[in-house]
Design brief:
Layout lengths: L23 E5 L11 E5 L4 H10 L3 E6 H6 L6
Antiparallel strand pairs: 1-2, 1-3
Length: 79
């Protein structure tokens, strides 16, 4: 079985040491490693959303921030 934190029933924030329920998806890619259409994901609780987004944006990796419910309802919105 493959674990996918975005689609897990109890998704946990990607911030180090955080055990809060995630409610946001931060879609990103590293253009040096990934094709432009590829999206990697981190998930975040309300408290860590901005911190994680700033970290990715500073490096030019952040593509979008979307509510977890919206992300999961997208057709073909796999990670």
């Amino acid at each position: 079985m493959i674990f996918d934190p975005v689609y897990d029933e109890n998704p946990i924030c990607s911030a180090k040491g955080c055990r809060a329920t995630a409610v946001w998806v931060l879609a990103w890619n590293n253009p040096k490693l990934h094709t432009p259409e590829r999206r990697k994901t981190w998930i975040a609780c309300d408290e860590h959303r901005q911190h994680l987004a700033d970290f990715l944006d500073l490096r030019g990796f952040l593509k979008e921030v979307v509510a977890l419910d919206e992300w999961n309802s997208r057709p073909g919105g796999t990670v």
